[in-house]
Amino acid sequence: MTRPKRKKNGASHTQSEDSLCLEHDIITRLQTLEQKIEQTSKTNTQKLLEEIEKLKSAIHDITIENDSLKKELKSLKEERSIIVDEMQQLRYMVDVLHEKQNDMEQYHRRNNVRIFGVKDLEQYEKAEDTVREVSNILKSKLHLTHLDSSCIDIAHRVGVYRKKADRAIIVRLTSHKAQNDIIRARRALKGTGIMITEDSTPKNAALLHK
């Protein structure tokens, strides 16, 4: 009966050894897995830190570039403000020059009158014929007997000749007094179909028309 007991103990000893081997194997594998996990974690952490450094560097570069762009934009705004001011000054100067030019042109026309409604029968009407026609209007229509052809520096038709359309006559007088006398006496033309106006610049004529 002793021998069977010995066999039982031997089997139990074998099972114990197998368990120890299995446990050792499991521990070894766990340790290996832990090492791999730790190594992988270190590698990933290192990569992550490197990426973070790259991002920090990129953010730094972007910040510098953004600051540079802000300064450039501020400079451009200041330049634009200066240009706008200069343009406004130039516009003002141009307006002033136009006004002076208009005044000068009107001054040169101060001895002129325009006559409308005088029959225009010839396309190439001679200047002396136009002067004679104007002189006749001054005497017979306006009763300005003191004004004759000698008071007229020049008189000519203006515009394009058209049949059944009378071109206006522009008259330059030798004195501003003669021009004033004609303007004051033009009411006598009422009902005759003839009209006399001052020779205004296009700008002044547009204002008068308005």
TrEMBL record:
Record bears the keyword Coiled coil: yes
Coiled coil feature spans: 30-86
This protein's UniProt keywords: Coiled coil
UniProt name for this protein: Sorting nexin-10
